[in-house]
Amino acid sequence: MESTPPLAATLRRLELLIRERGLSQSDVLKPADLAAETALPEKHVRLLLKGRRVPEDTVNERTCARLKVVAEAHMARTKMRLSELVADMHHRLGISEYWARQICDGKKVPNIELLHGLVGYFEIEAGEPFFTNSADKALNRALLPILQRLEPEEDPLDAMLARHGVVQTDLRLHGALNEEQRRLLVGVLYSVLSPEGDTKQ
To answer: Mean pLDDT in the chain?
Structure first.
């Protein structure tokens, strides 16, 4: 499994791809959207996008702060009042209304079991790390799908040849293949190569 690249590497790659496509950073990276997606303060997102550091925090501090942001976003989206959210959390998570209110206000740190329950309650796809990751890791995770969208798509012919151990091809004798010829060649190779890369008998 490939390791997740650090934020600095992701930002360098994004900067290069943005330049290659004649775009500006503001076309691609929207600090307000990234802040909402990560539950980070927008000012911290802006600092991180510039390659600068943000104030250090503890796991407990960031968990509390992000839970408060998530709870507020949930109330804005569902039009729930705090009292309604607290009552619903009490009912669905089996915690006291006092504890639910403290969590929504960012004043109490949930234990591991409750944090797991909150991930499900608020439908956080990233799981517990959404709340516990450092700011740079949280932003990096949000930037990777953007990077993936900007990355050039892998050529299917090159991908197939690489899978079967062909690192380089020399087609100079007949000139470069056009798109139709490349698709035809991919089809031919699929028909004669087994999944293991051996030719059919």
So the answer is: 84
